[in-house]
Amino acid sequence: MAAAAPKVLTERRGRTFVVTINRPEVRNCVDGETAQGLFDAVETFRRDDGLDILVLTGAGDVSFCSGADLKNVDSLAARPGAHESGPMGISRITDIDKPAIAAVNGYCTAGGLELACWCDFRIAARNAQFGVLNRRWGVPLVDGGTQRLPPIVGLGDALYLIETGALIDAEHALRIGLVQEVVAEGQALARALQVAEALSAYPQTAMRNDRRAAIDSLTLPLAEGLEHEVRVHRDTLRDPQMGEWLRRYASGDRPPPFRPPQ
Q: How far apart are CA 10 and CA 48, in angstroms?
C-alpha cells in the first residue's frame, strides 16, 4: 500500500524555499499534522543560510488554504508547541529575519487568510478569494488575524472583513492593499518565484534590516522608531556587500530594475 503524500511539501528553488499545503481534497485546510509540517518547514528555512526567501502556497488552483480543519479542530490545540507557535503552526512565530511571500490561488479564508497575512506580502491569481468565513460559525481569529490584518488594509476594511464575513475577489483585495499583485489564474506561484529571485539578488543585510525596522515600527512611536532604525542598520553600514555594490553602481554595472506586472 502506497504511503500517504505529506500534508506539507517543501522544495528548494535556488535560494527560495517553496512550502506547499498539500491537502487539495479538503481545500488545503489545516489539521494538527499539517500545522506541524508548516512549523517544521519554517524552522528549516530559519536555520538554512542558503535560503533567502520563503514562498507559501497551496496545492492546486482551487484553494490556497481554507483555514482550520473544523472536522479535526481538536488536533490543532493538541499539537505540542501549539500555544507558542499558533494553532495553524506558524502564526505566532515573529522572529524570522527573512522575507516570506504568499502565492494565493483560489480560496484564502479564515485561518488561511491569517497565514497569508503572516507573510510579508501576497501575490494573487485572478481566481483568488479572501474572507473571514469563520465568522459564520462563531469561530474566532486566533492566528494573528486581528493583529496583522488592520495594519495591512487599515482598520475600516479590516473590521468590514472581520465583522461581515464577506468573501471578496482578487481585484477588491488589490484595491484595499491586501494583495500587492494580481496575475493570471494559475500563475501566482510562478510570479512569486520571479519576485523571490529578484529579492534574492539584492544584498541581503540591508534588505533584511530595512524589513525588520519597518515591522518593528508598528509598535513604536515615531521618535523611538527613528532611533531604532539607526540601531538596526549599524551592521548594514559595515557590510562589505554595500561597498561592492556602490562600486558597481559607480562603474555603470547596474542590475535591471524590479518591474511589477503590466
A: 13
201 grid coordinates: 539578488
Burial class (CB in 10 A: 0-12, 13-18, 19+), 83: exposed
Residue found by looking up cell 511571500 in the block: 101
Most distant pair of Cα atoms in the chain: their distance: 63
pTM: 0.91
Report the relative pairing of strands 16-21 and 8-13 from DSSP bridges: antiparallel
Please state the φ and ψ torsions of residue 65, each to the nearest 5 degrees.
-170, 130
Domain 8-200 annotated CATH 3.30.1440.10 = no
Cβ contact 141:162 at 8 Å: yes
Mean pLDDT of 87-114: 96
pLDDT band, very low/low/confident/very high, at 71 (cuts 50, 70, 90): confident
